[in-house]
Design goal:
The structure is a homodimer. Chain A is built from twelve helices and 13 strands. Chain A is an alpha/beta fold. In chain A, strand 3 (about 70-80), helix 3 and strand 4 (about 115-120) form a beta-alpha-beta unit.
Chain lengths: ~425, ~425
Amino acid sequence: MNNWLIEQLLRLNMSEALVKPEGFTREGYTDEETAAIAAFKAIAEELGLAVSEDAAGNVLARWEVDGGLTAAVATGSHLDTVPNGGAFDGAAGVICSLGAVKLLKEADYSPQRPIEVICFRSEESSRFGVSTLGSKAMSGLLDPAIGSLEDQNGITIEEAVKRQGYSWQDMVASKRRKEELKCFVELHIEQGLHIVQHHKNYGVVKAVACPIRLAVTITGKAGHTGTTPMDRRQDALVAAAPLISFVRETALQLNAAYDTALVATVSTLTAAPNSMNVIPQSVTAGIDIRSVDDDLKKKMADAIRNECKRIEEIFGVAIAIDVLVNNPSIALDEEMAQSLADAGNHEAYLPHRMDSGAGHDVMNMAQAWPSGLIFIPCKDGLSHHPDEYATPDDLKMGVELLARFLVEATQDGREG
Amino acid sequence: MNNWLIEQLLRLNMSEALVKPEGFTREGYTDEETAAIAAFKAIAEELGLAVSEDAAGNVLARWEVDGGLTAAVATGSHLDTVPNGGAFDGAAGVICSLGAVKLLKEADYSPQRPIEVICFRSEESSRFGVSTLGSKAMSGLLDPAIGSLEDQNGITIEEAVKRQGYSWQDMVASKRRKEELKCFVELHIEQGLHIVQHHKNYGVVKAVACPIRLAVTITGKAGHTGTTPMDRRQDALVAAAPLISFVRETALQLNAAYDTALVATVSTLTAAPNSMNVIPQSVTAGIDIRSVDDDLKKKMADAIRNECKRIEEIFGVAIAIDVLVNNPSIALDEEMAQSLADAGNHEAYLPHRMDSGAGHDVMNMAQAWPSGLIFIPCKDGLSHHPDEYATPDDLKMGVELLARFLVEATQDGREG
């Protein structure tokens, strides 16, 4: 199994190595993502699965069952990456799902209901500032208004979707019927170090921390850097500096004061005109705030608002704050979490019950179907980085856990 | 004269208004700059001047003299702008130079040596991080190595020059012979408020403050914004924030401690990967330091180096500092400055002796020929900004001052 997993992971990543200095750049609704999905379809067909696409370009690879129950048990993840990301974020879940099917087929297992491996489109928010487009479409959570959001090259989501052969209108209307699925489970790399630090083998997630995301635009005044005296400036970048420090320091303080973790990051910053001899006229900073405690997220966002008022007064700039995202955190299905923890017992793998600081496709699926999420460890907790890595043994563990869960979920007597 | 000046200034700016919300974007060695230069050639020919180009694309518009002295008296400026700049930075000097020729022709003046109006290429540093390419070429100061510097779209100087029909190799070798010019005078908008604050009409510049420019690259570690705990980060943007504040605060302190002014600006900042869910991996900040006191510039640069060492230790990042530019400040010709101050007396305009915080083409010309620089006021001291403005009366004053100087300089008995 290990060799097969690595070989197929290389195929999905269209690469001869799983760790490369420049990492992998395969953003949502690009030709690169589409090429990786073509590899997924080929592997699924080699396993005898029936491949189809929905209106969002999500791929459904199905193990059909004659005359059994009709609601499928689904598992899967995504194949897009952030720019210069790693080979495992998303792809690990996709390949372990296919690996579980392979394991069950080789064991001549006969499911009583269909098993479906889903490859979601455009999970990362790096391109358009909005995440999980494919699973939002499938779950009926897609806001039609976001079609006009642009990437850094001015290409809208609607246009990007179209260029890959899909229609935004069809995608918005493509919510899947509830009765088609019984439940959904996603496997993902942890992107952190909690599993290892707790001396466990894998993670079973209780809740997913969804972000508050702010775009803070500071407007000062341009001027010549050589002729504008220091005490007559309204420099937007000078005004942005204390905000960056404030976000970090306030997050550290909240972590010291509360039991539940919170992270807050000024992750993007664009200065205009960004010209060597012009005082910065305006700065837009993107701030990402996460915690499974929604009140704590709000505390952080409120503190940022107050700090912006202080900065406006001190530096003579104007600050506008746009809320890009404000999603409540998502609790996952308790019963499924128990099944996923039990699956480890069969294989002597120790589960660690934990929360997820990152969003995943499962957070959308959970709003329509009972859903679960398991994590496998990744090296140094690194993710969204070229050095992102998970061992073949941990991938194999993921295959075994998913296979065990699929057996449990396709043998039960539940209606569907 | 006022109507003619405004009409021609509109032609040079290819616009129906001299102040527009978006300003003017006409960067060096672009089609936009070339189009403005075509307008310059047309106006020069209408005035009966003989138009030619050198290997850098600088345009020489000459009032030739039969049988007189051969070394020309030159005047001029540039037509490129920063992105979203104004209609006067550069163009004011170009149109006043042509206006002076028009005034003298209409007065049937007969110069004893040629008068030359020069339109320099690519004065602003906004595109390639290096300023005054055209006047550097003419003065023999062009470093061949900078041909490989790129703009934000990855286009090198060499390629940009080629696209406008010139050869980088020819341009590097195009130093003008010393005997071709007797002297050079530039007129420019002040880009500050010293003239008005001293209740004078125009500025006569003693020295030009040339910048030290640093590119500070901070390298931290990327990671997922949702899963990397606050106390385990090496966030390059968090490390950049105190540096931005430090540059401003140290410049303010140096101004309080010394008589000579210094300005220092973090004018550009680029964060990578600049993605909403990735901790900033690296930040490059461009710092522009100016003063006519070279020791003071060095003090500032040294303080920045020390602060970077402190930041490396506190935030666990690595910082590399590249010196992009380190040019000593340029003293202008004392005798010419006296002539330019005397020119005001003839017209009852009061000169203010001052230094220039900004670099200009004249700083290169001064290294090969006796050179002078005069400033006319601009509204609110604003420049590199869409609201940049100079009044028609101040432009007319500039024409009269240049015309007076040209008469003085083309009547003298100096050899050449």
